[in-house]
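Quick review question:
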């Protein structure tokens, strides 16, 4: 079974994070919400506290196939400031495993040189941080094993794109129909 870890730092964007969690779990993908704060409850940029499945320090990532970084402020900066998470992101990228980010969070991948020569998108104010990328205005870009998405309004597209990676386009289309997305 596929396993995806979604990382939460104080100030995350709740729709970008929780929409992906919801869609992946609906599709049967093992999805873990992981706190990088040292506390199981992490508060969003709009003051919504959510209880995580695990803390970063206690999570075994050996069977994880994808890391997902939600945006939000200051959530994105807090994710990037987490050295153990950045080491994990680097390791996944170097091993050719999936890394995905939405809204402001693709800036993290840009800062780490992961977008060079790839199509990528982000929240408009962060496009200058997509270092070396061919910046697009698509809702989601998949370039090899790097997935980026533009922002909160693209969270469903992002979640469906991740579903398609693991379960195929037909499964993602069936899920979209089930949730009455663009019917």
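Suggested answer, residue by residue:
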């Amino acid at each position: 079974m596929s396993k995806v870890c979604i990382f939460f730092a104080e100030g995350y964007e709740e729709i970008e994070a929780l929409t992906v969690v919801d869609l992946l779990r609906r599709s049967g993908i093992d999805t873990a919400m992981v706190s990088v704060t040292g506390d199981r409850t992490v508060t969003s940029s709009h003051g919504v506290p959510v209880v995580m499945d695990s803390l970063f320090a206690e999570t075994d990532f050996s069977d994880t196939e994808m890391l997902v970084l939600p945006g939000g402020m200051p959530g994105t900066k807090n994710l990037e400031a987490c050295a153990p998470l950045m080491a994990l992101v680097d390791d996944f990228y170097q091993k050719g495993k999936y890394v995905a980010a939405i809204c402001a969070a693709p800036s993290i991948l840009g800062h780490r040189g992961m977008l060079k020569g790839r199509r990528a998108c982000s929240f408009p104010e962060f496009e200058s941080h997509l270092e070396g990328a061919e910046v697009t205005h698509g809702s989601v870009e998949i370039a090899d094993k790097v997935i980026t998405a533009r922002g909160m309004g693209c969270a469903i597209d992002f979640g469906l794109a991740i579903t398609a990676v693991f379960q195929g386009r037909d499964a993602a289309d069936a899920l979209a129909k089930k949730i009455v997305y663009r019917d």
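Why it works: The chain has one domain: 3-172. The first strand starts at residue 3 and ends at 8.
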